[in-house]
Amino acid sequence: MISEADQISREAHSNASQQLEEANRTATNLINQSRRRAEMLTRRAEAFANNAIKDSEERLNRMNTERTEIEDFLGTLRNLMTTESMVAADENSAVEQLDQE
Fold first, then answer.
1. How far lies 11's CA from each of 6, 21, 75, in Å?
2. pTM for the full predicted model
3. In angstroms, rounded to a whole number, what is the distance separating the alpha carbons of residues 14 and 7?
């Protein structure tokens, strides 16, 4: 009976050791798989963020260009308005002089 108990004990220890090794392998595989997934997600997030930054910078550049174009247009418009008002004033003055004569 004692030898049978010893044999059962050895088998139990052997089974426990095998199960422990298998559990360790499974845990290691799960950890490695999780690391790979985390790395992949990190790369995706970084690529997304970089694209968002690039798009924002391009929009900012376009907006700056548009702002410059609008400011140039407004400056030209102001100059035209000044020139136009001067011409109108001269025309009014000429009409008044003709009316006085």
1. 9, 15, 94
2. 0.56
3. 10
